[in-house]
Design brief:
Two copies of one chain form a homodimer.
Chain A: E1 8-11, E2 20-23, E3 29-30, E4 35-44, E5 47-53, E6 62-63, E7 66-68, H1 75-87, E8 91-102, E9 107-116, E10 126-132, H2 145-160
Parallel strand pairs in A: 4-9
Antiparallel strand pairs in A: 1-2, 2-3, 4-5, 4-7, 5-6, 5-10, 8-9
The structure holds zinc ion (2 copies).
Pfam families (chains A, B): NUDIX, Zn_ribbon_Nudix
GO molecular function, one term (chains A, B): catalytic activity
Protein name (chains A, B): Putative NUDIX family protein
Chain lengths: ~190, ~190
């Protein structure tokens, strides 16, 4: 490790109430905040637009267009940007579908209901982009528990309304499911 | 400025697509993420619990218990913690009231509807904590536009449902209002 790299220790700075990473060399405080993931369930011709990941984690598995919200971006703009980046797709956002919380990863996810408004193609982070009818969704090959949740909640919202949803009872998005519709948990 | 302090310049790191603050001395990348504010509109005896700020910005003005979500915290836990810290109050959360976005500040706010479940008193960041009947709310002395929004949306949710709400049309939470119920804008 270069002698120039920051050398962080974890302590509670004066006047603060929470442990922060503070550089031993210069006192720089590296505030870590939870991250906001924005994404969408995009309906297209009666199917759902999905992306097969070309990057880790979960490369090769199927996901929804989603990613980290950037500075000075609204969540809706972020969800549109991610659909453009990952699926080369323009989308029209309808409403908030779900707010999920994954405290282990310090993540809050805002997932929107949307409609496809253009063609689509894989962006640099996707191997394939495809529109799946509900029955054809590759359930065993979904990338993350929250992809399960969002697909099920989209189904429920389309049938009965009720959006936005939160985490299914008893789930915290920790690990990939082995079976049940909502994903297994630690 | 100490010669040891990080010396950040703004550029797009290799393999990235967004401008980051990168230390000229050692290459440390200071990823800046939007921040999540969690808070609540707390009903108590037909009134709303409010806190008069003891700290800047907007010291002396009235606000709702709210603050930054911490690492590994769910938004609901964060809203409960903020009510405890700012108003020494336990609250019972009912539902999500609103998701506001303030892109100028890179903030996303998750505001919950809640009920007071204990006594209350000013915490270290509050000069006073009070329960106001609707007519007695100190409207000219509210700290932030989103406090206006949340109070109005609570009123609407109590009367007609419809939560969660988003920013009122045409608002982005930029500056404090001079008059209208939703706050003036840049
Ligand atoms: Zn340092
Ligand atoms: Zn440095």
């Amino acid at each position: 490790m270069s002698a120039d790299l920051p050398d962080f220790e974890h302590l509670v700075p004066e006047g603060d109430s929470v442990t922060r990473a503070v550089c031993r060399r210069c006192g720089f405080i590296n505030y870590q905040n939870p991250k906001i993931v924005v994404g969408s369930v995009v309906r297209a011709d009666g199917g759902i637009l999905m992306c097969r990941r070309a990057i880790e984690p979960r490369s090769g598995y199927w996901t929804l267009p989603a990613g980290y919200l950037e500075q000075h971006e609204t969540p809706e703009d972020g969800a549109r940007r991610e659909a453009q980046e990952e699926a080369c797709a323009e989308i029209a956002i309808d409403a908030l579908l779900a707010v999920y919380s994954i405290p282990r990863l310090s993540q809050v996810q805002l997932i929107y209901r949307a409609r496809l408004a253009s063609d689509y193609a894989p962006g640099p982070e996707s191997r394939e982009v495809e529109v799946f009818a509900w029955e054809a969704i590759p359930w065993p090959d979904l990338a993350f528990p929250s992809v399960h949740w969002a697909l099920r909640h989209e189904r429920e919202a389309a049938a009965n309304g009720g959006a936005p949803f939160a985490n299914p009872d008893g789930t915290s998005g920790g690990i990939m499911p082995d079976g049940g519709p909502w994903g297994g948990e630690e």
